[in-house]
Amino acid sequence: MRTIQFTQVFTVLFLSLSLLACKHENGRDHDHDYEHEDAHHGHEHSGSEIVFTKAQQSKIDFAVETAKAAPFNQIIKTTAQVLPAQSEEQVLVAKTNGIISFASPDLVAGKAVKVGQSLLNIDAQGMADNNLSVRLAEAESQFLQTKAEYERKQSLAQENIISESELLRAKTDFQNAEVIYKNLQENFTAGKQVLRATFNGYITDVMVKNGDFAKAGQPLVRISNSRNIFIQAEVQTKYYNALAGVQNAHILLPGTGEKHNLQTLNGKLVSYGKSTDRDNPLIPVTFSINNSIGLVPGSFVEIYMLCSTTHDAISVPNEALIEEMGAFFIILQKEEEEFEKQPIVKGSTDGMRTEILSGLMEGQNFVSQGAVYVKLAQVAGTLDAHSVHVH
User: Fold this and answer.
1) Where are the domains of the chain?
2) How many Å separate Cα 165 from the centre of its chain?
3) Is the pTM of this model over 0.85?
4) Cα-based angle 85, 86, 92 (whole degrees, multiple of 5)
5) How many Cα atoms within 13 Å fall on the side-chain side of residue 32?
6) Alpha carbon of residue 186 to chain centroid
7) Using alpha carbons only, how large is the chain's radius of gyration in Å?
């Protein structure tokens, strides 16, 4: 029995010594790993310093800016709708009763069209009360008849056989008949009305289906040219006095992060409302821009109107801000490769830059582009190597 007990005690003692040796060896390995990482990577030093090397900076869009006070505009932020300019949109209508036939099967909204391109036909043949062939023949006959009469009376007037007023009536009849005949000639071919695009653009709406019956005056197709468009916003009446001083605006495209300046789009403030009503107490504000950024009429954008009222303030690009659990930070540059996360209190934004109320002083250098990568470097440097060590 004693032999068995001694053997058990010896076994426990041996295992305990083995575990201690393993722990000591692992501790040395861990110390070596940390020394190696600090020497070669140096993600974070003591305190809150973050090391972000030149090599890391060169691999991203990275920039540093020096903080300084500069004029910062009063901002009116709201949502605006993209609208086609009235001069850039046209609705094609039927000029006769008839059956609709599309010139191509892909006549749909969004299709690009060129000036003079045939879009659809209206076949009026067989219409007892509106036969185009009959109307065209009648117009031609009336045109030739009034033309001959006018020429005959011109000769008589030269011989003073008829009065000037009689010649004038003949001329008027001839000109009216000519307008009707040429209109039918230009718009109708072989008993059909041909609707053509009046300018280069795209189709925004097709209001009929292939094979439908159309009546004269009925809207058929809407064409738009999106080169110039309107952006219309609505603001509260408290901003009324500031609207006259709006000289510029920043436009943000939701979902894409794209930001554009009104002036770079050759834009301007067209008008703003001078009154409101009970149904809509907001003031409409309309801008016009050159649509080089491909905005779709009917869509919505965010707009930051920059008023003439300004004050000096320290501001940073919006990309420089880092948010964590509702708090905001920027990355200060302490040395060429050493950085520090700095809490700040932010003020208003103009869509491009944000006012900093506290936490940043003039002359301090901060990361204006690539701040999120510096933050990731800090996170990588604070990972606990023991938590992922595998024995």
Assistant:
1) 49-67+321-382, 75-85+227-312, 89-224
2) 62
3) no
4) 120
5) 6
6) 40
7) 39
Instruction: Look at residues 191, 182, 170 and name the one whose alpha carbon lies nearest to residue 140.
Output: 182
How far apart (Å, rounded) are the C-alpha atoms in residues 334 and 156?
102
When the candidates are 3.40.50.300, 2.40.30.170, 2.40.320.10, 3.30.2350.10, the CATH number that belongs to 75-85+227-312 is: 2.40.30.170
Fold (topology level) of 89-224: OB fold (Dihydrolipoamide Acetyltransferase, E2P) (2.40.50)
Per residue of the chain (391 residues), give pLDDT as tens.
444 444 444 443 343 434 334 444 444 444 444 444 443 444 444 447 899 999 999 999 999 999 999 989 888 999 999 988 777 788 999 887 888 999 888 888 888 899 889 899 888 765 545 556 667 778 888 989 999 998 888 888 888 888 888 889 999 999 998 888 887 776 666 567 788 888 888 888 899 999 999 888 899 998 887 778 899 999 999 889 889 888 899 999 988 878 899 989 999 999 999 888 888 889 999 999 988 888 888 899 999 999 887 789 999 999 999 999 999 999 999 999 999 999 999 998 888 899 999 999 999 999 999 999 999 988 776 544 344 343 4
User: 49-67+321-382, what's its fold?
Assistant: 2.40.420
Helical pair 164-187 and 132-158, crossing angle rounded to 10 deg: 150
Query: Which structure tokens are listed for 124?
Result: 């009026």
Tokens of 157: 């007037």
Maximum Cα interatomic distance, the chain, rounded to a whole number of Å:
159
